[in-house]
From TrEMBL:
Its main location: secreted. Belongs to the GILT family. GO terms for molecular function: oxidoreductase activity, acting on a sulfur group of donors, disulfide as acceptor. InterPro entries: Interferon-induced_GILT (IPR004911), SAP_A (IPR003119). One of its GO terms (cellular component) is extracellular region. It holds the Pfam family GILT. Residues 1-20 form the signal peptide. The keyword Secreted applies. Keywords: Disulfide bond, Glycoprotein, Secreted, Signal. This is Gamma-interferon-inducible lysosomal thiol reductase. It comes from the Eukaryota. The keyword Disulfide bond applies. Residues 17-57 form the Saposin A-type domain.
Length: 255
């Protein structure tokens, strides 16, 4: 497993730089003109740390979203609330996404078998997302790719192939991971994180704010995530805090 992980990481670093340069057709002096351009050119983190005027003068807000890849309400929350909010106020968020949701798992020999609420294709999407997170590591790079997949109506593998042409992720390494024992173990770790929640999740998307879940936090996150994060952050507010987004839907736990 260790050798597999090392091989996948090596493929990641070879591919990321070349993909970013191919995808970004904007002159470098314009890379930090907007979050969208910065993401496309693979420099989002560098822009908000070095050129954008907001810098953290307080602890960032830890915000975690537990989801499953084909849940319609997860798709809606990620694409219409979470990702746009990340673009606006990502500099004051420590965002974590956990792709497992309402799935179930059982150990068979030396690996885990997963049963997903929306069928086998959802399990495929979950593990592709999980491998993307584990290999890319930088949320400014992998989250646009995951958002692209969530916005797609195609099967997860087909969506991944299309989205990898838009964002600089190492698709071959990700797919190799998703079919490997290494990826299987990574998805098991997502299951552990999800099943360890207190209180236990009853639906997805399920959110925690600085490690805490309440129905009030859930409602505020889905009604206006920008406001929730900005109200929680104790430092100087970034310009994005003056804007808001609204949406609310849930995918109930049926298993």
């Amino acid at each position: 497993m260790a050798r597999m992980a090392q091989t996948l990481v090596a493929l990641l670093f070879v591919n990321l730089t070349s993909q970013a340069s191919m995808l970004c057709n904007v002159p470098s002096k314009f890379w930090c003109d907007s979050p969208e351009i910065a993401l496309k050119c693979g420099v989002y983190e560098q822009c908000y740390k070095q050129q954008w005027p907001v810098h953290q003068d307080a602890e960032v807000v830890n915000f975690t979203v537990y989801y499953e890849s084909l849940c319609p309400d997860c798709k809606n929350f990620i694409t219409t609330m979470l990702f746009p909010s990340f673009l606006k106020i990502g500099s004051i968020m420590n965002l974590t996404v956990v792709p497992y949701g309402n799935a179930r798992e059982k150990q068979v020999g030396d690996h885990w078998e997963f049963e997903c609420q929306h069928g086998e294709q959802e399990c495929v999407g979950n593990i592709i997302d999980t491998c993307t997170i584990a290999l890319v590591k930088n949320i400014a790079v992998y989250f646009p790719f995951i958002n692209c997949m969530e916005a797609s109506s195609a099967k997860p593998l087909d969506a991944a192939k299309v989205c990898a042409t838009k964002y600089p992720v190492p698709l071959d390494a990700i797919l190799n991971c998703s079919r490997s024992s290494f990826g299987n173990r990574l998805e098991h770790e997502m299951a552990i994180q999800t099943e360890s929640l207190q209180p236990q999740h009853q639906y997805v998307p399920w959110v925690t704010l600085n490690g805490v879940h309440t129905e009030e936090i859930q409602t505020e996150a889905q009604d206006n995530l920008v406001k929730l994060i900005c109200d929680t952050y104790k430092g100087s507010k970034p310009p994005g805090c003056s804007e808001s987004l609204k949406t609310k839907q849930l995918c109930k736990k049926e298993f």
